[in-house]
Amino acid sequence: DWLALKPQEPSPSQCCGSGCKPCIYDVYEKELAQWERARAKQDKSLLMEKKEQSNNSELNPDTFTAFNISSVEQLTEDTYQYKFELPGNSSLGLSLGQHIVLRGVVDGLEIQRAYTPISPGNAEGYFEVLMKHGELLMLASGTGLAPMLPILQSITNDEEDETFVTLVGCFRTFDKIYLKPLLQDLARYWNIRIFYVLSQETSLEKLPWSYQENTYTGHLSEDLLKTIINSCRRKPYVLICGSSAFNEDMRRYLKAAGIEENSCFVF
């Protein structure tokens, strides 16, 4: 029971690298120390201190405070304005140019990012921030993976880029997947998903367990592509690279899934 309650150490991709106070690692160290104290005393009520702190209406540079989202307004195709409630007529009380750190869970991974509120500094009862969420779907067959990698790396190297990316790599067998360590490292980022489709594999049982959940056997069919598109947060912009037959099939499948031609780019 105690191990299930132990805080999970953040991965490097969860830190935005902006020098946040507190950093996600600072929060982890504090929560770990709190867990260790509670375990030593065999008193789980000591773990409730964090929840009591989160209900505090005043911002605290040493801990996170929970606020409700009162509205979300879509301003452009990939930009949203989030409005958070503040208790009563309270205000953030930030100085000009100061930022806040927002923490949340995305696809089961806890992340945090720094944002400068766009609401007036003296706004009472609320504050607002802008968040930009683009969506890319990459469909690659064999060596068609090559032009996708620089794009992926440019997104993960830019701490302010919050584009969600789904990469679908199609290969004949598991052994034919190249640059596995790099792909596995990219898949650890909170905004990157990678799927594999292996046309000549008949079973996933012989694959390493870390690949089994996100790998399919057979070909990338119209139905499978629709399933992947439906798992995206919004209609994605699609990048395609493979053989001429693969490219043509993907364009046909995407059209059937409701993706317009001007939302696709073929390398």
Automatic annotation (TrEMBL):
A GO term for molecular function: oxidoreductase activity
- The answer to whether keyword Nucleotide-binding applies is no
Gene3D superfamilies according to UniProt: Nucleotide-binding domain of ferredoxin-NADP reductase (FNR) module, Translation factors
Binding positions for FAD? 113, 115, 130, 132
- Report keywords, A-Z: FAD, Flavoprotein, Oxidoreductase
- Record domain FAD-binding FR-type: where: 62-177
Look up the record and name the cofactor or cofactors this protein needs: FAD
Q: Which Pfam families does this entry report, sorted A to Z?
A: FAD_binding_6, NAD_binding_1, Oxidored-like
Q: What superkingdom does the record give?
A: Eukaryota
Cited PROSITE patterns: FAD_FR (PS51384)
Record-stated family: Belongs to the flavoprotein pyridine nucleotide cytochrome reductase family.
| Name of the protein this chain belongs to | NADH-cytochrome b5 reductase-like
Give the organism, scientific name.
Answer: Apaloderma vittatum (Bar-tailed trogon)
